[in-house]
Write a structure and sequence with these properties.
Blueprint: H1 5-8, E1 16-18, E2 27-29, H2 34-45, H3 52-63, E3 64-66, H4 72-82, H5 89-96, H6 99-113, H7 117-127
Antiparallel strand pairs: 1-2, 2-3
Helix pairs in contact: 2-3, 3-5, 3-6, 3-7, 4-5
Length: 128
Amino acid sequence: MNSFDSFLNPERKPNIRFKLSPYPDEFEMRLLSAEEDREILRRMQGDKKLDGADALIAYAAEALVVPDLHNADFQDKLSKKAGRPVLSPADALVAMTTSAELSAILGAYTEFSGVDVTFTEGVEEIKN
């Protein structure tokens, strides 16, 4: 076996599935690639009003496979339900959840991905 094979084909964690009591369907979450991570940071760098919680919401929203928070039809329906524009996966995640539900999703993301408080502190340093 070529010594590069293990680096080209790493064994990643499989997606996780979890339930939240008010939703009849399971949520599914995946790990983000380093490129996706960089893209999220780029989008957030110009917004000085964002904090670590906003960063974590953005990451968790991108990591969700089910529901597909990128789906335009889903975002349109959430916009009507919320009475305000839902323009991004992070907006969709906030619009569809209660505070407790959002906290549970963020907890699932941090546990699954290994991201913790030092990550959000790092986001703050990058923004400043």
